[in-house]
Each structure stands twice: as C-alpha cells, then as structure tokens.
Amino acid sequence: MNPAETIWIDGAWEAGAGPSLPVVDPATEKEIACVASASTEQVVRAAEAAASAQPAWGALEPWRRGEALRVIAAWFRRHRRELAELLCSETGKPIAKALEDVENSAIYLDYMAQWDRRIEGEIVPSDNAHETILLSRVPIGVVAAITAWNYPLDLFVRKVAPALITGNTVILKPSEVTPLACIRAARLIAESGCLPPGVFNLVTGGGSVGAALCSHPLVNMITMTGHRETGKKIMTGAAGTLARVSLELGGSAPAIVWKDADLDLAAEALAFSSFENSGQVCTSAERILVHQDVHDAFVERLVEYANRLRVGDRHGETDLGPLVNATQFGKVRQAIDRARAEGAHLVCGGYGLPSLPREGYWIRPTVITGVTPAMSLFNEEIFGPLAPVIRIGRYDEAIRLANATRYGLTAFVFSNDYRLIMQAQNDLRFGEVYINRAMGEALQGFHTGHQESGIGGEDGKHGVLKYTQIRTVYHRYS
Ligand code: NAD
Q1: What is the pLDDT of residues 172-202, one digit of tens each?
Q2: What is the side-by-side order of every strand in the sheet holding 345-351?
Q3: pLDDT tens string 135-148
Q4: Residue 440 DSSP symbol
C-alpha cells in the first residue's frame, strides 16, 4: 500500500495530482498527514468510471448489492480499531466514541443492505382497455457524495450505502479536514473485492475538487452534508447540469424546557445534546428556552452535568475531545467572548482553563445564561460545546423564539403536559422534533432539514427512495 495514493478511480489507486493539504491532530496541533488533492482531470476520470460502471451495477440482482454492503460492514468491524484510531487522530474525539462511530457505520451498512428486497413499484389502472401501467423505481445514475468532518465515517456510509443499494455508482469526496478514516475505509472496500471497478470511487481535496465534481455533466445527483452557504453554492452550480441535489445542512436547534418538565431528565438530555462531540453535531441544542419558574433549578442541574463531563486524553476515560481545528476553535472562542461582551453570563466552562491541555483546541462544556434573541449567539450556528440559556414566560413566546431562525433541522420539547406537547410539535417549524429525550436519530426515521437546513434528508425509507427515480411503462397487451 502506497500511502501517497489516496484516490481510487475505476478500481485502481493513484496519487492526487493536485495540491497537498495538511491534516492536523486537533489535540496536539501537529500535522499528521498531507493528502494530495485530485486534479480536475482525475475528477473527470472518476465521473467517467462511475458512469461506465453504472448500467451493469444497476442491472445486478439487488440481493447481490445487499451482499456487497454486508461484506463492507464486516470489513469495517474487522478493522474497527484501526479506523477508530484514525478518526480519533483527525477529529480529536475520544477512542470510545470513535469505536462507536465505526460500529454505527457497520450497523448502517447492514440496515441499508436490507433494502435489497424492499424497493417496490406500483401497478396502476389505465384509461385504456388491455393496458397496465407499471411504475418502477430505477437508479438515478452517478452520485457525487460530499461530506463534512464531524462524523467522517457515519457520513460516508449514510450517503454511499443507500446510493449503492439502489443501483447507483458513487464518487465520494470526504472533507479535506478529516479524510484519513475515509481513505482507509475505501481501502478496506478495495481489499474486500466486493465491488466491481468504478462502482465506488474516492477523490480527495477541498471545495474546488467538490465543485469540479458537482458540475460534471455525468453526475446525475449530488448528495452533500455541510454548511448552509456551501449547500447554496452547490445548488446554484447544479442548475448547470440539472443534477438532483440532496443537501443536509446546519442547524440551530431550540429546546423548550417547560415549567412542568422533569428537570433531571431535561438537564441530562440537553447536556448530551449540547456537548456531545464537543457540540459539533448538526442537531446540537444551541438555544435552550427555559420557563422562568424553573430557570434557576434547571441551570443548576445543567451545570452539574456539564461539570461531570471529562475532557482530555482520548485514550483515557474521557467524554469529549478538542474542537476539530483552529478555525472552529477561533469561531467558538469568539462566540463566547462576544456573548459575554453583549451581557450574557458564563456560568461554567470556557477555554484556556488550567485544567485543559496547553496544546490543542480545547473548550470545556460551557453554560451561558442571560442570552437574548438580540445576541449573536442566538442567531448563528455555534457548532461548539456551548449551552446558551434563554429565559421565557409564555408558550407563544417559546414558539416564536424557537422558530426565530432560518434553520429548521431539530427542536426539543421537555414537558409533561401532553396538550402542550401536541401543540408544540405542530407549531415548531423543524424537520425533526424530540419530545422528552436527547438527540439521536433512528435508522428507520428520516433525518431531514426544513427551511435552510436542507433539501432532501437521510435514513429510512425516504432516505433510500431519494436515490431512485420513477419510470412509468404503459404496457398494452392486446
Ligand atoms: P463545509 O460546507 O465547509 O464542507 C462540507 C463539504 O463540502 C466538504 O467536503 C467541502 O470540501 C465541500 N465543499 C466546500 N465547498 C464546496 C463547493 N463549492 N462545492 C462542492 N463541495 C464543496 O462544512 P463542514 O465545515 O465540513 O461541516 C460543518 C457543517 O455541516 C455544519 O453546518 C453542520 O451543521 C453541517 N452538518 C449537517 C449534518 C446534517 O445531517 N444536516 C450533519 C453533519 C454536519
């Protein structure tokens, strides 16, 4: 294995012919790898390889495609430690969490493999005698999959598995911030020999490689996870080829903690939802709207949970690692500073603390109270381990503030008043609402953003069917 060869096209490894990009360990700030980007010519060849492999892959018996996904899952499990170590060193997350990510990715592949015998068509009556109308689901063609850095392997399979099971071929471009586990995963797929050449291809590089891929005329669908603004650029670019787009973008999730809520449950669930993966989750609770009657009691519990979380050595008994890179670290530090300057109170956590390692991008779980809708913290996606708390009084105020965002991915409600809960689930303009529980999507659910959190969605039946298109056949038999 030549480590310089990070690009897989048509069943062969090659070195990137574009500029090299450093990969940095966020716990030490040290460069751990340098990955060459694909050139435009390599992107073109990847698209051509995927296009020429697609008809045969799409025509294969679906159960054989399911078998291939099961083989990949088994290879991921067999190499779980190695994949987890790479995830650890490029994202900074603790090894226990990285091992969970690998297992979740294998579970996802196994789940998607089950769709091999489940894609169904329809037969509808015709207006004409002796005619049957058949609606069948067929592949879209070549799928470009562009992913973010927060869960590199989960996002890999979340796009590649449903695209492959439905008969599409894929070119994956992982985030340039965290490409290492994805490259290794692609090598495992290659070593397993379970996919014919060209069915799955990998190109490395940053936004310009992504843009070249998305604008290639042989690409029929773009599925991307990342920032709202990147999503808009991709959608604009896709107008040139009319490729379908599925965009899983950011969020700024509100959580309503009503006066009758179980405060222990709410505090524990929201500590997890604000701080897990150091707050670098699209569904993180970023605006906690707490009824004034229980505000202080809730904050006290939230701080207790925040202080319990262990931050540090990823091979030790820790819950959280550093933020992913200097850019993200700077953004979150600035968000904390600006909130304080605007009059909010830092109750616990922060950065630059004596308990934190000197090197690396560390921030302790941070609770900030006295946040108001006028503050920047309220209005932007934070993507860091911050739990901003806003005091509320009336139900309509809670809903108005919860909905006061251009995002629409996730919302949380904590209450024991069933009428209020039912009303809130209708009034909240979000694609995913959690009632009395922490974040965490189900395989069979549908993770979808409303408003500017995206177009499309992932998981379950709807997440699979989006990789198909309908063909109508008018079958005259007289
Ligand atoms: P990003 O938008 O900077 O990058 C995402 C991917 O897009 C990367 O692979 C990048 O190289 C590529 N890219 C950048 N410019 C491009 C262009 N012009 N054309 C094509 N590709 C381009 O996002 P990020 O910083 O990697 O990820 C963080 C964001 O992802 C946050 O907003 C987070 O909420 C979101 N996210 C959403 C979900 C979800 O399911 N909704 C899940 C995880 C992360």
Answers
A1: 999 999 999 999 999 999 999 999 999 999 9
A2: 345-351, 363-369, 386-392, 285-291, 253-257, 410-414, 432-435
A3: 999 999 999 999 99
A4: -
**Index of the ligand 1 atom closest to the CA of residue 158:** 40
The residues near 142 (Cβ < 8 Å, ≥ 6 apart) are: 47, 50, 51, 54, 168, 169, 170, 171, 218, 219, 220, 221
Identified catalytic residue from 176, 248, 381, 432: 248
* Under 8 Å between Cβ of 446 and 459: yes
Ligand 1 geometric centre to CA of 354 (Å): 33
Could you tell me the domains of the chain? 7-249+453-476 (3.40.605.10), 253-440 (3.40.309.10)
**Contact yes or no for 284/439 (Cβ under 8 A):** yes
Pocket of ligand 1 (CB under 6 A): 146-150, 173, 175-176, 206-207, 210-211, 214, 224-227, 230, 233-234, 248-251, 282, 381, 383, 409, 447, 449, 454
* Catalytic residue list contains 282: yes
With H, G, I as helix, E, B as strand and everything else as coil, classify residue 148: coil
Q: What's the pTM?
A: 0.97
β 5-9/12-15 pair status:
antiparallel
H/E segment holding residue 65: helix 62-78
